[in-house]
Amino acid sequence: MRNKFVIGLAVAVGLFVSGPLFAHHGGAVYDTGKKVPLKGTVKEWVYVNPHCLLILDVKGEDGQVVQWIAETQPPTSVFPLGYRKDSFKAGDQVTITVEPLKNGRPYGRILQAVLANGKTLGNVPGAAAAPEAGTAQQP
Amino acid sequence: MRNPNIVLMVGLVVAALGFSPDTLAQNSSAGGWLAPDFHKPPLRDENRKPAPRRSLAGTWHPADGPGAGTQAGGVQLKPNNGRPENQLPYTPYGLEVYRSHKALEGVDAVLPVEHNDPRNFCEPLGVARYNHYNVRLTQIFQDDYKVVILYQYDNRWRIIWTDGRELPKVVDGGVEISGDGREQRFLGYSVGRWVDDYTLEVQTVGTMPEDRVWLDATGRPISDKARLTETFRRLDYDTMEWSETIDDPKVYTRPWETMKLPMRLHDPRTDIMEYYCSPLEQEKYNKLFGNAASGK
């Protein structure tokens, strides 16, 4: 019985780790056109290829803190838009608008960001103004 | 006698007006590290300068701004959006190869867990796809024998020989140069000639086979029998048109034009950010974001 469990677990783990090593996604994973405003505390800003990542703790209406991770384009793409390696620092209070994933998980791509110093950064040139930021909607 | 304090204050005000932080920012090159300028004035008769003869040298960027050379949805002139005018003339084999390419972009994009795009394994893209993926700040250097293109994406470089050497002959599995069998190359073998003082025509053969490289991010194929013809046409001092036609009878029934990209000259001192494909950074990205986006 125990051997069958171990074998089953090994198979499950194997299935989990199999598949393409790199799952860099395409644009089809996003809920295109949907905008989610997020106000939260920066945990980390990862300024690297293939995409920059902002890790944000967002308190929901129920008081629960949810970690969101929002991506932008790579550094060379967002540099002209004002994004810098030090645009976000741990502890900063920021407001971002994201286009969320279709799968409902707390991930998305940044459409616009308002930094701790009040400066607004866009993700796409000419992006529409973000809606009034509020607390996060629970995924 | 003038009040020296007033003189000092006036002087300080005048100095502040002349050297405001904004002025300093515009005139300063941040210690010499110029950022790209994507707000250049349009070219008109009064500010257009003549093209130098037989020169493509410079730091170039797609004239329509950031993103104009990204081509995420497929080659510039034929994006893979399902529209009839963008359908390609596949051979039966070419269509079979296209369907075997599970791409993350385009009308036939698959779920992230299903892709097999070599790009995401940081494989070299191949000469054609470097022209069709994230064409950004592109440096061109040249001497009497060659023109060298430095692509920003993945910091790759490519040599186009202009010294009159012959284009290699394509044979199965590679090329032949003076009777010697030579290997296939990701950047191929490129030979260029000046058709006039402002137009360089480049032929490239000897590229990698269709199971190693794609033509674009949507999985369109390019085979090792492809012949690429590029034209670099210097229109004036600040602009150049970069065109490409692919002739690949293994996967397409006829030649077709992939791009006609207007390029604008940038300051040669412009800092060019790295844009490497790093397996470690890809892995970190996937752990933090990509796997969640893929549904893992």
Descriptive labels:
heterodimer, A: about 140 residues, alpha+beta, OB fold (Dihydrolipoamide Acetyltransferase, E2P), 6 strands, globular, B: about 300 residues, nine-stranded mixed β-barrel, about 25% strand
Quick take:
Chain A has helices at residues 2-17, 75-78, and strands spanning 36-46, 53-59, 65-71, 93-100, 107-114, 120-122. With 139 residues, chain A is of the alpha+beta class. A five-stranded mixed barrel of chain A has the order 1-2-3-5-4.
What would your notes on this structure say?
The complex is a heterodimer of chains A (139) and B (296). Chain A is built from two helices and six strands, in the order H-E-E-E-H-E-E-E. With 139 residues, chain A is of the alpha+beta class. Chain A has a single domain, classed as Nucleic acid-binding proteins (OB fold (Dihydrolipoamide Acetyltransferase, E2P)), CATH 2.40.50. In chain A, strands 1-2-3-5-4 form a five-stranded mixed β-barrel. The longest helix of chain A is centred in the N-terminal third of the chain and has 16 residues, at 2-17. Chain A is globular, with a radius of gyration of 18 Å. Mean pLDDT of chain A is 76; it is low at 1-23 and 125-139. Chain B has 296 residues and is α+β, with helices and mostly antiparallel strands. Chain B has one domain (58-293). Chain B is built from five helices and twelve strands. Chain B has helices at 4-18, 21-27, 92-100, 127-131, 279-293, and strands at 58-62, 138-142, 146-151, 156-161, 169-171, 174-177, 180-182, 189-196, 199-205, 227-234, 239-247, 256-266. A nine-stranded mixed β-barrel of chain B has the order 1-2-3-4-8-9-10-11-12. In chain B, a hairpin with a 2-residue loop joins strand 8 (189-196) and strand 9 (199-205). The longest helix of chain B is centred in the N-terminal third of the chain and has 15 residues, at 4-18. Chain B starts with a helix and ends with a helix. The interface between A and B is large, with 32 and 44 residues.
